[in-house]
Amino acid sequence: MTSKEILAYYDATVDRDVRADLQRAVELVGEPKIAIDCGCGAGSDIAYLLANGFVVHAFDIELASISRCRERFGDNHRALLSQASFSSFSYPLASLIVADASFFFCPENEFSTVWEKINTSLMPSGFFVGSFLGPNDTMAGSGFKREAFWPDVLVFTEVQLRQTLVGVEIVKWTEHDMDGETAQGECHHWHIFSVIAKKI
After folding, report:
1. Is the pLDDT of residue 81 over 80?
2. At how many degrees (to 10) do helices 44-51 and 20-28 cross?
3. pLDDT tens for residues 109-145?
4. Coil vs helix vs strand at 43
5. Residues forming beta bridges with residue 35, ordered by sequence position
6. Which of these, 127, 109, 118, 105, lies nearest to 195 by C-alpha position?
7. Would you tell me which of 5, 62, 130, 185 could form a disulfide with 99, CB atoms 3.0–4.6 Å apart?
8. CA distance 86 to 89
9. Which residue has the higher pLDDT, 3 or 111?
């Protein structure tokens, strides 16, 4: 069953502003406009991608996420929704793959296989846009309430992440290391690497 914390996160992010990196990636992507939203949550990125003419294959491991998105986008034939994990999802060919704050919860022992699937799925000259958790983030610490969200928290150092991204062209790299708040207004130290990358 989806925890009350995750449900509160969905409520807080259902209409959140789309991040600048996704806006930039959408500007860069050519035809065909086919996107995959990995860990779609409450669907704010799906809404933006649909509004920009994309067919969107979106998945989330949480049934509550997919149920909400079906209610929101059920009449749109360009929104293709699946309840699946990173490793069980069948990745179609896509010109844009989005993983915004979702890889944080990919099991570490599955990530290399998942990343290989993403690379295979991405069309030549297609774009990946996503974020990765750094070691200074509150989520990476022992005090983070993992049982409320997900037991696996995937953390990358800059060196590890740059090694992972060998083979793609990094279009934009941003490191955020700062105090702030969660979507629910709780104090949080953010350490996130935000990336736009192009398949060569």
Report:
1. yes
2. 30
3. 999 999 999 999 999 999 999 999 999 999 888 777 6
4. coil
5. 56, 96
6. 127
7. 130
8. 6
9. 111
The token duo for 118 is 């993403």
At 146, is the pLDDT very low, low, confident or very high (cuts 50, 70, 90)? low
Q: Partners of 97 in the beta sheet?
A: 36, 128
Give the three-state DSSP class for 197: strand
- Reduced to 3 states, what is the DSSP secondary structure of residue 58? strand
Count other Cβ atoms within 10 Å, centred on residue 184.
12
**Residue 199 neighbours by CB under 8 Å, 6+ apart:** 119, 122, 123, 124, 125, 126, 127, 128, 168, 169
- DSSP summary character for residue 88: T
Please tell me the number of Cα atoms within 13 Å of 136 on its side-chain side: 12
Q: How many residues does the chain have?
A: 200
Q: Which helix (H) or strand (E) holds 8?
A: helix 4-13
> For residues 99 and 58, what is the distance between their CA atoms, to the nearest angstrom?
10
**What fold is seen in the domain 4-199?**
Rossmann fold (3.40.50)
Compute how many other C-beta atoms are within 10 angstroms of the C-beta atom of residue 165.
Answer: 18
1 has a pLDDT exceeding 60: no
What CA–CA distance (Å, rounded) separates 196 from 72?
A: 28
Q: Which two tokens stand for residue 80?
A: 């293709």
Q: How many CB atoms lie within 10 A of CB 157?
A: 12
- Tokens describing residue 187: 């104090």
Place of tokens 């991405």: 122
